[in-house]
């Protein structure tokens, strides 16, 4: 069953991005070139671009500049998935690297299934999995959002044990 991820990051970021444009929907790989042109984005030295992406509840694949917050790309959310994607701009645009790295939504690695649906909807060939995947846990002791490294479930800030199960709750926005 799909899980909808709500924004779990700092409230201040949510406020800061409120007037930023949402991400661009990819309906084909060619939309990437149009997006680059429109946003004056140039490939890196390896002829690649890395972008921020989010997947809407209706499986639209949205991209934004890699320095954008995921929550801005997602127009506040919620999302089915979020992360970073790298495309190689050969004659055919190739998706060569994709991850669930998003500290704004902290999605579980199994959100790949939703990413896959969104990519296939846009007819974008994909590697069949996240090429890099991460687990995120909230420290219930100090509130730090942790990225788990090598199955080490310990808070990077206060060293308390982290829960084995995903444990985020949406950022409280009632005061926004
Ligand atoms: Zn902690």
Précis, in short:
The chain has 176 residues and is an alpha+beta fold. The chain has a domain at 11-133. Helix content is 16%, strand content 23%.
Verbal overview:
The chain is α+β, with helices and mostly antiparallel strands and 176 residues long. It has a domain of 123 residues. It is 16% helix and 23% strand. The chain contains 4 helices and 7 strands. The strands form 2 sheets. Strands 1-3-2-4-5 form a 5-stranded antiparallel sheet. The longest helix has 10 residues. The radius of gyration is 16 Å and the shape is globular. Bound molecules: zinc ion. The site of zinc ion has 8 residues, from loops. Zinc ion binds next to loops.
Q: Helices, strands, pairings?
A:
Layout: H1 11-16, E1 24-26, H2 30-38, E2 48-55, E3 61-65, H3 70-73, E4 81-89, E5 93-99, H4 112-121, E6 135-138, E7 145-148
Antiparallel strand pairs: 1-3, 2-3, 2-4, 4-5, 6-7
**Uncertain regions spanning at least 5 consecutive residues:** none
- The count of β-strands is 7
**What small ligands are held by the chains?**
zinc ion
Q: What is the straight-line distance between the termini?
A: 31 Å
Alpha-carbon Rg, integer: 16 Å
Q: Give the H and E element order.
A: HEHEEHEEHEE
Strand content: 15-25%
Global structural class: alpha+beta
* Largest sheet properties: 5 strands, antiparallel
Helix fraction? 10-25%
Instruction: State mean pLDDT (0 to 100 scale).
Output: 94
Assign an overall shape.
globular
Count of DSSP helices? 4
Neighbour order of strands in the largest sheet: 1-3-2-4-5
Name the features.
176 residues, 5-stranded antiparallel beta sheet, 7 strands, globular, binds zinc ion
């Amino acid at each position: 069953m799909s899980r909808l991820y709500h924004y779990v990051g700092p409230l201040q970021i949510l406020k800061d991005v409120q007037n930023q444009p949402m991400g661009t929907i990819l309906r084909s790989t060619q939309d990437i070139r149009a997006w680059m042109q429109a946003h004056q984005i140039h490939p890196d030295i390896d002829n690649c671009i890395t972008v921020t992406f989010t997947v809407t509840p209706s499986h639209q694949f949205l991209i934004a500049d890699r320095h954008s917050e995921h929550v801005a790309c997602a127009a506040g959310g919620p999302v089915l998935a979020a992360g970073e994607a790298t495309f190689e701009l050969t004659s055919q645009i190739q998706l060569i690297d994709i991850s669930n790295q998003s500290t704004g939504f902290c999605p579980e690695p199994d959100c790949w299934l939703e990413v896959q649906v969104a990519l296939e909807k846009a007819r974008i060939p994909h590697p069949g999995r996240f090429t890099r995947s991460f687990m995120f846990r909230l420290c219930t002791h100090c509130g730090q959002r942790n990225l788990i490294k090598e199955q080490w479930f310990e808070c990077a800030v206060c060293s308390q044990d982290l829960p084995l199960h995903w444990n985020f709750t949406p950022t409280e926005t009632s005061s926004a």
